[in-house]
Predict the structure.
Amino acid sequence: MRHDQDERRQRKVKIIIGVFIVAVMVLSTFGFVLDYASTSGVTERVGGIAFRQSSNGVVARIEGVTMTFNYFPSQIRTIPAEGRIKDILRDTPALYITSDPTDPYAKDIDEVSLYLSTVLPETKQIYVAPGFTNATGYARPQITCDNATAYAPVIYFFRANQTGLSVQDNCVLAAAQVPNDVYRLNERLLLLMLGVLDE
């Protein structure tokens, strides 16, 4: 008699554990489907190009290349862009990206320089060379706005009190108020160069 009760109790415990495992599996699958449905439907169209939210960021196919961004165009369009930035950068065969090596946002600027050095040769056949405004003791060349020409303009990233893009001769000044603005400026410049956004 006691043996039968123990057997029934064990069977109940096994059933409860089994139901619990099945419930966890079903609910996690349901959660994944909901998460996918909530992000995959978010899109924004600019000039015939669809920007779609994915698990890796905002994805768009531009000039035959699938690119991933951190922001939708509407989130970076508000960054002030003065002057003739698009004219300077759009059809240039080469450009320099520079910054002060002691800039508080140096790590973020380096990431952006590396990104542009990778994506621009692929999408626009533009050679990108990173430099520093004071290259003493560094492997990079010394590049300032004085080096900017029509054939090799300079993009100078730096920390400032206000975020925005402006032009000084053939040098584009990319001023970032907070570290995150370095990435926003990067995407604003890239979409200008690709002809997706205007100034």
Q: What stands out?
A: The CA atoms of residues 11 and 112 lie 60 Å apart. The beta strands are 43-46, 49-54, 57-62, 65-69, 94-99, 127-132, 154-159, 164-168, 171-176. The chain has a mean pLDDT of 85. The chain has five helices and nine strands.
